[in-house]
Amino acid sequence: MAFEALSEKFSKVIKKIKGESHLSEKNMDEMLKEVRIALLEADVNYKVVRDFVNGVKEKALGEKVFDQLNPSEMVVKIVRDELVNLLGSDACELTYNKNKPTIVLLVGLQGSGKTTTAGKLAYLMKNKLNKRVLMAACDVYRPAAIDQLDQIAKQINVPLVNFGTKENPVNIALKAKEQAYNDHYDVLIIDTAGRLQIDEALMEELKNIKEKVAPDEILLLTDAMAGQDSVNVAKKFNEDLTLTGAIMSKMDGDSRGGAALSIAHVTGVPIKFIGTGEKISDLDIFHPDRMAERILGMGDVLTLIDKVSENIDEKDAKKSVKKMVEGNFTLEDMLKQMKQVQKLGSLGGILKLIPGMPKVNDAQLSAAEKEMKNFEVIINSMTPEERAHPEILKNSRKVRIAKGSGKTNADVNKVLKKYDQMKLMMKQMRGKNGKFNFPSGMGINGKMPF
Amino acid sequence: MGLFKFLKEKFTKKKEEKVELTPESKKEEESLKKYNDGLEKSRKNFSNKLDELAKRYKSANQEYFEELEEILIEADCGVSFTINTIENLLEYTKENSITNPKEINEMLVDRMFLNYLKEGEDIKNELTFDHKPVILLMTGVNGVGKTTTIAKLAKRYIAQGKKVMLVAADTFRAGAKEQLTIWANRLEIPIVTGEDNEDPASVAYKGTKKGIDEEFDLVIIDTAGRLQNKKNLMEELRKIYNVVTKLSEKTPECFLVIDATTGQNGVLQAKAFKELINITGIVITKMDGTSKGGIILAIREELGIPVRFIGLGEKDSDLEEFDLDKYLYGLCSSLIKDE
Predict the structure, then answer these.
(1) Among A8, A291, B77, B279, which is most exposed with the fewest C-beta within 10 angstroms?
(2) Does B133 sit behind a cis peptide bond, omega within 30 degrees of 0 on the bond before it?
């Protein structure tokens, strides 16, 4: 939903800029305004957005974007690169101690996914990295939190340090550390209770755990759906504990996850993992480039927009639009439109550039492409008069066309039916706003144009 | 009458008059205090900012409105809601030549919540016990606080003398059943649970049936957290809803629990759940943090779903019926005192 709006806005701005011979500070501001809105809609913090957009502008000016052949592309590229830059890091992997246990402390707000992630991390380390993993249950507050971790531990066959809810969390962590050292575990993962960053007593408890246990990694759990406040949360946790990284949970939802950028900007710590589903194995390494695209909500749609604006013959398009509006849309026009779409590359390739289009599978894609080819062959087998006035097509003509194109009568009818549908669509569009904006509506609403 | 003046009169006059405290007015005062305390951190970020802003500017200019925009965005009100509200305000103040920042701030707060009221039919936040049992289905994405909210709601209605039972229809998440069972034991009320990974609809059925047979006043059903874009999980919820609806005399109450720290995804959540089942209200949780929960405004505007209850703290008594006036008072009391 948000994506459509964004891609439309971008394509409008790009079109505007394309018309001008060079990029001015003014039209760049216009583009950056759209970037700003996109970031805000993705829940990136307001201040972070401001800093970020200013940074992009400076960079663009510094790189003399203005002299570039295709300035709009440059601006977009800088935006994306800057995002990746900010989100990215080489320190994505956890570092493991060689001769002693690596201690990982998980912290965060209530409901951010610490306990589930503790299990996922343990599973990943045990099964993919062959580590000997021990977990510790330090959430003595939330009812059944320890039960939850205990069940997960049993499920993945990892031992759990469990002193119930009567023991102090600092002591539990300390005892777990002792056990990890004595029994030569590779990793100790400590699950803690969720807490508000402003809860001084509970933050003090975390500081105590940190002091006593000296964890190698302190990872903040952040919900991918978090809003503007994630900045304050990350800031306070970082001030109190000096985080080494973050894990973003619930990335399998449809939020844009702008909090990732806020956290990276405010704390400077890398996001190391993302939670991608409800299964124990659903934990992935974080990819800055994918995240950048998700935040902008555009996937490779910018590439697509460029492709469209480069390959569509403006004159042709305008002419057919005019015809449509006047109601003189012919089969010839339909064929032209199809060809323009084909110029962009295979339908499958185009659809893949658009994020949020999971419903079309490969079989459907190839069927649609085949249909387009059929249409072309059939229309090419018609006389110019037939193409201009499809209503004269009666049975005998249809039989001839079918034979000429090597198709069946039914195929010919299909073309005519599609033509009628399109004509009707034009009529309705004309009723709405009097103009038809080809091709920005193409494919984006999830419907195939042909 | 200005909004702030109205709130001031409503909530502070009583104290001055030293009216004799009836149990009811005492309860009312306690409730107001809970709002005021729970929203303390939110207030620091919202109305204190407005206040500081008003002090920095002698008269409002373009920049002033940009800063107002920032405050709204930071409250998670969403881009389009913010832009609309600010533009509307800008137009009005221009037409009427209003430049006093304090006045403008008050109008802003007024406007932010105007739509909230406009959209509202007269909704009673409290559950209505006109039949037995009232079925309450609790839904939401993962980690928003469904189970804790259930405990708070149960406690509330037990205190009102209702016969309450719980149903643990989250058979998926490890420890979910145990968590609710601990609450049921603490509250000393019965609970129906299922086997791990049992069809949640069958647990919901059993629970509802028991609620009907044993004439409970209220049956609260906990469901697993589900992200709204998971088709299968959403279908599972529809099935639970259908099963319960078929058994129940009246359509069940369905609450969607939303975490106050949620950003713009909250609107998508509300939309998806509303399309699936008949959501009758929202419970907003974790309002005692620094988040402002502005998402409820966007949800109200776009979907018309009202907030019925608000979670203001970690104790099982920290749940209040949502009251817009109290909420505004809690959010803006630092501005109101200057009046």
Answers:
(1) A8
(2) yes
Is it the case that residue A224 has pLDDT exceeding 70?
Answer: yes
Residue A254 shares a structural domain with residue A316: no
Contact yes or no for B144 and A148 at CB 8 A: no
Helix axes A259-267, A230-241, angle to 10 degrees: 30
Note if the bond before A439 is cis, omega within 30 degrees. Answer: yes
A373 compared with A17, residue with greater pLDDT: A373
Q: Which residues of A263-281 are buried (b: 16+ CB within 10 A; e: fewer)?
A: bbbbbebbbbbbbbebebe
Do B176 and A148 lie within an 8 Å CB cutoff? yes
Interface test with A, best of B37, B142, B182, B185 (most A CBs within 10 A): B142
CB A13 within 8 A of CB A306: no
Classify residue B66 as exposed, middle or buried by CB count within 10 Å of its CB (0-12, 13-18, 19+).
exposed
Rounded distance, CA B54 to CA B74, Å? Answer: 17
Of A213, A180, A258, the C-alpha closest to A106 is A213
Domain ranges of chain B: 28-121+331-336, 134-322
Question: Taking CB atoms and an 8 Å limit, are B41 and A198 in contact across chains?
Answer: yes
pTM for the whole thing?
A: 0.78
| Angle at which helices A409-433 and A331-343 cross, to 10° | 90
Q: Which residue range(s) make up the domain with A129?
A: 102-285
What is the spatial distance between Cα A54 and Cα A150, in angstroms, rounded to a whole number?
Answer: 48
Phi-psi domain of A43 (left: phi exceeds 0; alpha: psi -120 through 50; beta: other): left
**Inter-residue contact A304 to A266 (CB < 8 Å):** no
pLDDT score of A355 more than 60 = no
Task: Name chain B contacts of A223, Cβ cutoff 8 Å.
Answer: 143, 259, 261-262
Half-sphere exposure (CA, 13 Å, Cβ side) for A21? 0
> Is residue A230 a contact partner of residue A261, using CB atoms and an 8 Å limit?
no
Amino acid at A195: R
Q: What is the pLDDT of residue A377?
A: 87
Q: Which residue of B has its CA nearest to A252?
A: B227
Residues of B in contact with A1 (CB under 8 A): 268
User: Is B261 in contact with A252 (Cβ distance < 8 A)?
Assistant: no
pLDDT digits (tens, 9 = 90+) for A236-274: 999 999 999 999 999 998 888 889 989 988 999 999 999
For residue B221, the cross-strand partners are: B137, B167
Residue of A142, A228, A252 lying closest to B227 (CB–CB): A252
Instruction: Report the CATH architecture of B28-121+331-336.
Output: Up-down Bundle (1.20)
Establish if A155 touches chain B: CB-CB under 8 angstroms.
Answer: yes
Domain B134-322 -> CATH class: alpha beta
Amino acid at A109: L
ipTM: 0.90
- State the pLDDT at residue A8: 57
Residue A125: CATH number of its domain: 3.40.50.300
